């Protein structure tokens, strides 16, 4: 077990509880943001913490699987808050890369899951 094992286990337990308690009848987009802010974001950040700052953290295979599973569970709860059934299968590294680019867990989730769909803005051009 790595030094991150207890934190990963706590995240995994919380993700399991959140998934079990999820009620699609009362879910709101704001609740989805909470799953990202308090769940997926901290899971991704833990991975980044272990791989930056001059200290390379090594996770055991079960720890990495648990961290990935927790993050994906929260992404699934997030999409279900938007009325979209989605099976998240992202790697923690993939999510961490997007988070580093966006610096925003909400944009990270939207880019990975495509929920909610982005509305492409078309530039109006005047014809003369």
What's the SSE blueprint?
Blueprint: H1 5-21, H2 29-51, H3 61-81, H4 92-102, H5 105-113
Helix pairs in contact: 1-2, 1-3, 2-3, 2-4, 4-5
What does this structure look like?
- The protein has one domain (5-113).
- The protein has five helices and no strands.
- The protein has helices at residues 5-21, 29-51, 61-81, 92-102, 105-113.
In short:
This protein is 63% helix and 0% strand. The protein has 128 residues and is mainly alpha-helical. The chain has one domain.
Span from first to last CA? 68 Å
Amount of beta strand: under 5%
Number of helices: 5
What characterizes the major β-sheet?
Answer: none
Based on CA inertia axes, which overall geometry fits?
Answer: globular
What is the CA-atom radius of gyration, in angstroms?
17 Å
Find the count of extended strands (DSSP E, 2+ residues): 0
* Relative helix content: 55-70%
Please describe the structure with a list of short key phrases separated by commas or semicolons.
128 residues; mainly alpha; 5 helices
């Amino acid at each position: 077990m790595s030094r991150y094992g207890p934190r990963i286990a706590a995240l995994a337990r919380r993700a399991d509880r959140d998934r079990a308690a999820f009620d699609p009848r009362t879910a709101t987009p704001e609740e989805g943001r909470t799953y990202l802010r308090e769940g997926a974001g901290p899971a991704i950040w833990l991975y980044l913490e272990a791989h930056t700052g001059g200290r390379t953290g090594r996770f055991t295979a079960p720890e990495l699987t648990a961290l990935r599973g927790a993050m994906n569970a929260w992404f699934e709860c997030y999409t279900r808050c938007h009325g979209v059934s989605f099976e998240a299968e992202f790697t923690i590294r993939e999510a961490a890369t997007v988070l580093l680019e966006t610096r925003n867990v909400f944009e990270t989730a939207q880019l990975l899951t495509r929920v909610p769909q982005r509305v492409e803005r078309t530039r109006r051009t005047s014809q003369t």
